[in-house]
Amino acid sequence: MTASSLPVLILHTGDPQDTLRDHHGGYADQLRAAAGLQAGQASVVAVYRDETPLPPSAYRAVLITGSPAMVTDHEPWSEAAAAWLREAVAAGLPVFGVCYGHQLLAYALGGEVDYNPAGRSLGTRAVERTGDDPLTAGLPMQFPAQMMHSQIVTRPPAGSVILARASHDPYQLLRYAPGVYSSQFHPEFGADFMREYLMHNAQHLSEKGYDAPALADALEPTPQATGLLKRFLDLHATRTA
Predict the structure, then answer these.
(1) How many C-beta neighbours within 10 Å does residue 238 have?
(2) Sign (positive/negative) of CA torsion 168, 15, 25, 34?
(3) Per-residue pLDDT for 39 more than 90?
(4) Residue 165 and residue 128 in contact, taking contact as beta carbons nearer than 8 Å
(5) Sorting pLDDT into bands at 50, 70 and 90, what band is 2?
(6) Burial of 239 by CB count in 10 Å (0-12 exposed, 13-18 middle, 19+ buried)?
(7) CA-to-CA distance for 200 and 116, rounded, in angstroms?
(8) Residue 114 Rama label (left phi>0; alpha psi -120 to 50; beta)
(9) Phi/psi-derived region of residue 14, left when phi > 0, alpha when psi is between -120 and 50, beta in every other case
(10) What is this structure's pTM?
(11) How far from 157 is each of 82, 107, 134, 176, 222, CA to CA, in Å?
């Protein structure tokens, strides 16, 4: 990366509970670290706090975080972020959305989002590749990924390519256009963060029918999923000022 390179925008859409944020960093911090970006290489814009990104030409790529919010609530800040993303994609800016970012990007481009009829997904789950793309080249046909979501993309935008699926969700990794992707799974989450989340919320999860200790015991490392973020930037984030 040269000194003249533009920053990567991290579109920050929410954060975990305070205890988890204090121990592991916020969602923007985790996404930046997993993508291999130094603090000075990324510009974090907290759209959920009504911060506004610069025009797409100010960035070389965009990463969109997860969030405790729901896309179907159509919060004003979320609708504004969706409008900005439509502009960014039209301008050819590379984008990678994660979880809420996956749903927000799909919604922004004409897809549909809703609660998963199969229920909430938590823990390490298997993801199966379904399409070929330079982003996923060399990955095994099945790999583990961290999941933490209630809503999913129920209908991808027209022209989308499905690159990976899971047993409970057919749209785990989508490509919308060259250099524009999103994943329902969390490539940025490590097993330690997932374990603390599950145990911190064990009582609430138990009331909802989830066995948090069992889910915590079944957690696995997810290096293939995590590696997608760096690969995305290596392949597509080459714009310079």
Answers:
(1) 14
(2) positive
(3) no
(4) yes
(5) very low
(6) middle
(7) 24
(8) beta
(9) left
(10) 0.94
(11) 14, 8, 21, 7, 28
Looking at residue 3, its pLDDT comes to 37
The whole-angstrom separation of Cα 100 and Cα 11 is 11
Task: Please give the pLDDT value at position 145.
Answer: 97
C-alpha distances (whole Å) from 81 to each of 20, 64, 184 are 25, 10, 18
Mutual angle of helices 27-34 and 223-236, in 10-degree steps: 80
DSSP label of 48: G
- Catalytic positions, written as ranges: 99, 186, 188
Inter-residue contact 228 to 136 (CB < 8 Å): yes
Alpha carbon distance 112, 107 (integer Å): 6
Q: Around Cβ 105, how many Cβ atoms within 10 Å? A: 31
Q: Do 163 and 130 form a contact (C-beta atoms < 8 A)?
A: yes
Check residue 241 and give its pLDDT.
65
Element (H, E) at 21: helix 18-24
**169 contacts 133 by C-beta, under 8 angstroms:** no
Give me the amino acid identity at 171.
Answer: Y
pLDDT by residue (tens digit) across 182-207? Answer: 999 999 999 998 888 999 888 888 88
Instruction: Report the pLDDT averaged over residues 61-86.
Output: 97
- Strands of the sheet with 95-98, listed across from one edge: 42-46, 8-12, 61-64, 95-98, 180-183, 169-177, 161-166, 121-129, 142-149
Our CA angle for 168, 18, 218, nearest 5°, is 35
